[in-house]
Design goal:
Helix content is 40%, strand content 14%. The protein is built from 14 helices and 16 strands. β3, α8 and β4 form a beta-alpha-beta unit. The radius of gyration is 28 Å and the shape is elongated.
């Protein structure tokens, strides 16, 4: 139904526009904050490393957890551990077992449902246990591990998990001892799965020195691949978690590691490095008259009037700057003077090879103007836009500020209004 609001420029009856202010800012602020945070993680991790969102337990309530999963995916994460969000938004869902699951098992006799079978598996639980046991001495001899010292309860949990999820066997290996129990027990079950024509996925480490452990685990996987003649074992996934933040990933990249993926939770969904985003929503025109709000802090002085936003591109295809123009100004062509909104001497001429208008009308007079993009299309758009930026603009340390400028006409109109609305003080 028509609301009288034109979303093309945020135009409509003043009272209605004031009513939707809180709703609009709530939707824009959190979404932009979380998606941007996710994109920063993707930039530091690199294209070849997968990112798994593990943030539901730390999110700001169930609603925050669900929406954060959506925005993290848009920002560049590959999958979620949040099953409901995955179902609601049609995004991949991945995860591992939990330490509590592993430590809940004590010995092989805990697997009392030995006649149990699952779809696609040519044997029952009892037969699967027997296949696993047949590999125990072979694996322990290869890795020079005392078979008697491996934790039977851990092996039991891996067997139970693998039998239930034979196509997604990815388990934690740091519940007891990574190299003397976790990795050997993982390989025992992985070999049994391979014998039954299933493909194990890999391991997750959630504590300790992630760089060192991942490198040593990779060596073990390569050794097992060569010894047992199973080539893909060399490339089994190694997922690192444990309070991962941007600096952790950057440090691991500098040290060198063999991780295929990171599981990120707290620092992702809570945006720990910057917990809030300060987007604002201000009146800029009423009854045909431009309006302005002044402040002793120049950054809080609003830009009056109806505006159009353009992005200017250089010859290499990278964005050079965004320029804000008054509505009705011609599109930028040729040599464009771009000015800092507040600092008179900060100005630059730009000779763009191309430009595009960043505003697009989705809703007009209460009607959706064209089909809304899917979440996968939005994710791809985000990826392409960030990918077009110069690397110095998006680097982790001391990034080059990206220019957001105003046109000459916009600058003159804005500063004329500042003078008109700034009282001249008298002194005696």
């Amino acid at each position: 139904r028509s609301s009288g609001i034109n979303a093309e420029y945020g135009e409509g009856p003043l009272a209605k526009l004031q009513i939707i202010e809180t709703t609009l800012l709530n939707l824009v602020n959190f979404a932009s904050l979380v998606a941007t945070n996710a994109a920063r993680f993707k930039l530091v991790a690199g294209e070849d490393v997968k990112l798994l969102e593990f943030g539901l337990r730390r999110a700001q309530g169930p609603d925050g957890g669900i929406s954060a999963s959506r925005y993290c995916y848009i920002g560049g994460f590959d999958s979620k551990s949040n099953i409901l969000a995955a179902k609601m938004f049609d995004i991949p869902c991945k995860g591992t077992n939990a330490h509590s699951f592993i430590t809940s098992f004590n010995k092989l006799s805990d697997l009392n449902d030995i006649d149990k079978t699952i779809n696609g598996c040519p044997c029952n639980m009892e037969e699967f246990i027997s296949i696993c046991q047949s590999y125990k001495d072979k694996v322990c001899d290869l890795l020079k591990v005392n078979a008697a010292e491996t934790i039977e309860g851990e092996l039991t949990s891996f067997i139970s998990y693998a039998f239930t999820f034979p196509n997604s066997y990815l388990v934690l290996v740091d519940s007891y001892d990574v190299f003397n129990s976790g990795v050997p027990n993982f390989l025992i079950v992985a070999l049994a799965l391979h014998q039954l024509n299933f493909k194990p996925v890999g391991v997750r480490i959630d504590s300790g020195d992630l760089a060192y452990q991942s490198i040593e685990i990779r060596k073990t996987f390569k050794m097992a691949a060569k010894h047992f003649g199973i080539e893909f074992f060399a490339d089994l996934s190694i997922v690192g978690s444990n309070d991962i933040c941007e600096d952790t990933i950057a440090s691991l990249n500098q040290q060198g590691h063999s991780l295929n993926a990171f599981g990120v939770g707290t620092h992702l969904v809570t945006c720990k490095s910057q917990p809030a985003l300060g987007c604002v929503y201000k009146l800029v025109k009423v009854n045909g008259l431009n309006r302005i709000k002044l402040s002793e802090d120049p950054i809080k002085t609003t830009m009056p009037g109806k505006k159009v936003l353009y992005r200017l591109y250089g010859k290499e295809g990278h964005p050079l700057a965004d320029v804000i123009q008054e509505d009705g100004e011609p599109a930028p062509e040729g040599r464009v003077l771009c000015r800092h909104p507040n600092l008179e001497l900060k100005r630059v001429y730009i000779n763009p090879t191309s430009y595009k208008c960043l505003q697009k009308t989705w809703v007009k007079n209460g009607k959706i103007m064209e089909p809304l993009p899917s979440i996968h299309e939005i994710k791809k758009l985000c990826e392409n836009e960030i990918g077009s930026m110069r690397r110095d603009h998006v680097r982790l340390l001391n990034p080059t500020p990206y220019k957001v400028s105003v046109s000459e006409a916009m600058y003159q109109m804005m500063h004329r209004m500042i003078l008109e609305h700034t009282p001249i003080r008298e002194m005696e």
